[in-house]
């Protein structure tokens, strides 16, 4: 796997690095460590590599930042972690990590490229460890078909032999069927909810859709919770990821609803 140069955070035009990896606040990093620990309990039945899909009901709820920060947090345990950008329609891991998206997943699924050339290592600038990324590649006309293909299943099986954990960033369930399509290939899904953004009705619909495909929902990540965010935050109501990540188990949340 070719190693990417360490990059300087804050150098891209659309700088979102303040919400990512080493730039998270102490509380933000702690929240991801809790999420990581909870997730490890979800993998107790899994032999070998644990695979988790990250989705949500709406666009822009924080799936991609959650996927990146989760991969970073798992890599801190000295585990071999792969982050896959399977949101081939609105890929954004490349711009958030300031990397070239090609070659990536779509190229591996349509061309004869070897996976080695598409797997790259991301090492945050102040860290001595990092994680691997498989970016989206060229935008394909048929992302759902590609994700549903036997080639995708074979690729994931091969990647599972090389990593301890695989985190897959997906599109929202409400918009397209890609997340449901891939749910059969993962151990479980995390559903991101963004405070003051996610509608209860659409979230219910998202859960129904995932249940229809027998997806296992590991739990929910509450992103942008006002409770816990600093009042003096310069990032307004979302806060700079200051204690604003939560994690709740699907089954306990269901009980609360009753
Ligand atoms: N808690 C937060 N505080 C501040 N900004 C946030 C927070 N969560 C996400 N953002 C910002 O909101 C935007 C959307 O986040 P992100 O790209 O992770 O969402 P997404 O669910 O992956 O979106 P899409 O559906 O387009 O893939 C980004 O600009 C991100 O930096
Ligand atoms: Mg995204």
Task: Describe the protein in words.
- This protein is of the alpha/beta class and 258 residues long.
- It has a single domain, classed as P-loop containing nucleotide triphosphate hydrolases (Rossmann fold, 3-Layer(aba) Sandwich), CATH 3.40.50.300.
- The protein is 34% helix and 18% strand.
- It has helices at 26-42, 63-75, 93-97, 105-110, 115-118, 143-147, 150-160, 178-183, 200-212, 250-257; strands at residues 2-3, 50-56, 81-85, 119-122, 131-134, 165-169, 188-194, 217-223, 245-249.
- A nine-stranded mixed beta sheet has the order 1-4-5-3-6-2-7-8-9, with helices on both faces.
- Strand 4 (119-122) and strand 5 form a beta hairpin.
- The longest helix is centred in the N-terminal third of the chain and has 17 residues, at 26-42.
- Adenosine-5'-triphosphate binds next to helix 2.
- The site of adenosine-5'-triphosphate (ATP) has 20 residues, from helix 2.
